[in-house]
Amino acid sequence: MTALSFGAARRRIPLGVIVGTSVAAWLVAWFADAPLADWISFSLLRLERGSPLGEAVAFFLLDVPKVLLLLLGIVTVVTLVRGFFPPERVRAALAGRGLLTGTIAAASFGVITPFCSCSAVPLFIGFVEAGIPLGVTFAFLISSPVVNEVALVLLWGLFGPVIALVYMAAGLSVAIIGGLVIGRLHMESYVEPYVWALQGTRGATIAVRLSWADRLADAWSYTRDLVRKIAPYLLVGIGIGALIHGYAPTELVAAIGGRSNPLAVPLVVLIALPLYSNAAGTIPIVQALLGKGMPLGTTLAFMMAITAISLPEFVILRRVIRPQLMALFAAVVIIGILAIGYLFNALIP
Fold it and tell me: How far is it, in rounded angstroms, from Cα 35 to Cα 13?
């Protein structure tokens, strides 16, 4: 349903009826997903239960609708909430705060914002324009891709609230510590001069009041576009996850990322460096690796590395910061991810 058709429907049907019907349809689809995937895999297709092919197909058929339902449902709600925090309001809220307060606030704002790592350049410039300290800006840049709101709701739906909250706490810790370290080192001279020249050039923004119908229409339009954009990555990710779930030998996974390998955490971070994906695209792979016995800390390290320190991000960041600051940024984030991986491997058996 496009924003235009949503508005047309709103004029004919009460908003409460539209919302109630949508929620009911979502719930029916959610609870029908697992038995339907099982029936298709093992009754309709007559695959052998417990076989690599049967388990891979069942995993794929279960996860595709589940992930899409989570995206359609929860991201719409998240987008509604996020509509009250536009980038201009975020910049205004962060400008003028102390280093510690601003860093914590920036990392927290990063959780509810839609930016991925490849949005770093315009975001960085916008924060510098508003006079926000460099360390606070980097706290936001780390938090926004690492603690991706789509990944957070997917983790909650697929693994439960404990793992989702562990993921959020881990990402926020990396962002806050990274922002504080970069802020204390006073690296402003390693930002390209043209970026500082833009400071103070942004004009005032005009506040726009939207009705709930307009907000719902905008939220649905954003969610529809988001799903359309990342659906290919999700299908690939779920396909890889299904292959891992069905075919990857448990012994191989344990050798690479198991507790018996003391280098498991840096190894998965190294593997993640040349890759690029939004956090939602890594969820099915992470789910399969956890199912094969890979520890939680190692899987979280893989997810955070692939979204926060990818090579495409560094290529884009080079347009606004110099190699010395890029190296510091990478070192802080990598050290934080490694520490969190080892910490949660020690805390959670």
Answer: 33
Contact 132, 90 (CB under 8 A): no
| CA atoms within 13 A of residue 246's CA, in its CB half-sphere | 21
CA distance 284 to 339: 24
Q: 40 pLDDT band (50/70/90 cuts)?
A: very high
* Beta carbons of 267 and 261 less than 8 angstroms apart: yes
CA separation, residue 319 to residues 72, 119, 137, 172, 194 (Å)? 35, 12, 16, 26, 10
Helix (H, G, I), strand (E, B) or coil at 247: helix
Residue 205's pLDDT band, with cuts at 50, 70 and 90, is very low
Do the Cβ atoms of 37 and 46 come closer than 8 Å? no
Tell whether the model's pLDDT for residue 28 goes beyond 90. yes
38 φ, ψ to 5°? Answer: -65, -45
Query: What is the SS3 assignment for 3?
Result: helix
pLDDT in tens, 150-180: 667 767 876 788 888 887 888 888 889 888 8
Neighbour-count burial of 56, counting CB atoms closer than 10 A to its CB (0-12 exposed, 13-18 middle, 19+ buried): buried
Cα 110–64–51 angle (5° rounding)?
A: 125
Rounded CA separation 272/258 (Å): 17
d(CA 34, CA 69): 13
CA angle 130, 137, 201 (to 5 degrees): 20
Q: Structure tokens of 96?
A: 């003028």
Mention every residue, 6+ apart, whose C-beta is less than 8 A from residue 21: none
pLDDT tens-digit readout, 276-312: 556 666 777 777 777 778 888 888 888 888 777 766 5
The amino acid present at 93, given as its one-letter code, is: A
Q: At what angle do helices 99-111 and 161-184 cross, to 10 degrees?
A: 140
Give Cα 43 to chain centroid, integer Å: 36
Residue 163's pLDDT is 80
pLDDT at position 36 over 90? yes
